[in-house]
């Protein structure tokens, strides 16, 4: 039996995700204080523990970060499914315009409509795949604020007027995005994790950039 998440449950998961990220940041401070990352060796060339590193604290912090990152990944998957369920329920339930507007205001950041019925077998064919997401730009901020938007591996179905039917080169996509600066960009993405199709209206009116690199599929 599939348990459907309520809006309140999704928002609670978003809060939990932010708590996990804060804990990850705190553990990261331990690594920063020791001037070491997640993968560097903790012993010297002769196999002795590094004298300038608190080896015990670093090992503990690394282990904790890995556990927290795994927990965050699971929660992000739950949030993504929950958002899809919430939007699907709202679309099928009778509601007036004011109620719909009120509901959408409770979800953070960019509006994203997830169509649970449009999966890989029924959605339009994607023409590109997301290679990377630029930190601090729109696509990256959507994830930080809890709304699972564009991520590495997602497939691009539509950018503005560009679809698989008229796509020729990536320069064509870049031109469309450039021409939409100062306006709202219509984007359709197939999520890599679930296969669901998300329709996103990205606000480029404030000078923000989309912040993704994609390659032809």
Description:
This protein is an alpha+beta fold and 217 residues long. The chain is 42% helix and 16% strand. It has five helices and six strands; from the N terminus they run αααββαβαβββ. It has a six-stranded antiparallel beta sheet. Helix 1 (7-33) packs antiparallel against helix 2 (55-92). Residues 95-121 and 143-147 have low confidence and may be disordered.
Number of helices: 5
Calculate the terminal CA-CA distance, rounded to whole Å: 35 Å
**What is the strand tally?**
6
H and E order: HHHEEHEHEEE
Largest β sheet strand count, sense and barrel closure:
6 strands, antiparallel
Shape type = globular
Which value, in Å, is the CA radius of gyration?
21 Å
Strand adjacency order, main sheet: 1-5-4-3-2-6
Structural class based on helices, strands and sheet pairing: alpha+beta
**Which stretches of 5+ consecutive residues score pLDDT under 50?**
95-121, 143-147
Task: Characterize the quaternary organization of these chains.
Answer: single chain
Helix share bin: 40-55%
Estimate the mean pLDDT confidence: 76
Q: Tell me what portion of residues adopts beta-strand conformation.
A: 15-25%
């Amino acid at each position: 039996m599939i348990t459907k998440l309520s809006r309140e449950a999704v928002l609670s998961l978003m809060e939990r995700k932010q708590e996990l990220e804060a804990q990850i940041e705190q553990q990261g401070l331990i690594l920063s204080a020791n001037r070491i990352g997640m993968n560097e060796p903790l012993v010297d060339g002769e196999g002795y523990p590094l004298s300038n590193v608190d080896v015990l604290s670093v090992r503990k912090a690394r282990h904790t970060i890995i556990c927290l990152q795994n927990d965050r990944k699971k929660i992000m998957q739950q949030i993504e499914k929950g958002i899809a369920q919430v939007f699907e329920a709202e679309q099928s339930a009778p509601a007036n315009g004011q109620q719909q507007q009120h509901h959408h205001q409770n979800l953070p950041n960019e509006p994203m409509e997830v169509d649970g019925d449009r999966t890989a077998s029924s959605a339009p064919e994607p023409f590109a795949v997301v290679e990377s997401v630029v930190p601090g730009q729109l696509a990256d901020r959507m994830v930080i604020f809890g709304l699972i938007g564009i991520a590495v591996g997602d497939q691009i179905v539509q950018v503005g007027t560009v679809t698989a039917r008229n796509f020729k080169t990536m320069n064509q996509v870049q031109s469309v995005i450039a021409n939409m600066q100062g306006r709202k960009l219509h984007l359709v993405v197939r999520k890599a994790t679930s296969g669901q199709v998300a329709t996103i209206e990205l606000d480029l009116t404030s000078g923000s950039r989309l912040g993704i690199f994609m390659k032809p599929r």
